[in-house]
Design brief:
Radius of gyration: 26 Å
Number of strands: 7
Low-confidence stretches: 34-46, 58-70
Distance between the termini: 82 Å
Shape: elongated
Helix content: 25-40%
CATH topology of the largest domain: Sufe protein. Chain: A
CATH architecture of the largest domain: Alpha-Beta Complex
Mean pLDDT: 79
Number of domains: 2
Strand content: 15-25%
Largest sheet: 5 strands, antiparallel
């Protein structure tokens, strides 16, 4: 039987340990998109969940295009921040005349180019579905299930705040 020289096995062990350490350093230093940030234009105060703009105590008449006076009663509400595996999602909903008139996305995953690609088609589609359905009960967008779930969660929290639906 031929045995390996002692120096060769020490080199192999040293190489194995150094390779393992290098792999662990690379693994723990890898950044994922879960640390995504909110758009710079949205301030922290504007993101606080709850009613942002409520209807006036006594509705003020607004003259419409027909010349008749109508009542303007819009309520704007921020939903809670839904933490998803790809980053936070938060929406703001505007309700007027007992209908959802607009949904604005305040926060969404933006940690990498793939997030941007997904959100470029998913967020407008979710917006349109909510306006059509008049509720948070909309289907997830294919390929954007995680963002869709966060969107619906935040929207439902906003709707619950004003007891809509």
């Amino acid at each position: 039987m031929v045995s390996e020289p002692k120096g060769l096995s020490v080199r192999r062990i040293t190489f194995w340990i150094m390779s393992t350490v290098a792999a662990l350093v690379l693994l723990f230093s890898y950044r994922t998109s879960t640390g995504g940030t909110a758009p710079a234009a949205v301030t922290a105060a504007a993101q606080a969940p709850g009613i942002v703009a409520a209807p006036p105590a006594s509705p003020s008449p607004v003259t419409g295009s027909s010349g008749s006076a109508t009542t303007s009663r819009a309520t704007t509400v921020n939903g809670s921040v839904a933490q998803t595996q790809w980053g936070p999602v938060q929406v703001q909903v505007t309700i007027a005349g007992g209908r959802i008139t607009d949904v604005t996305t305040l926060r969404y995953p933006q940690g990498n180019p793939r997030d941007a690609e997904i959100n470029s088609y998913a967020l407008p589609a979710l917006h349109d579905e909510v306006l059509a359905a008049q509720s948070a009960g909309v289907d997830a967008i294919s390929g954007a299930t995680v963002t869709s779930d966060g969107y619906r969660t935040s929207l439902q929290a906003a709707l619950d705040t004003v007891h809509f639906g």
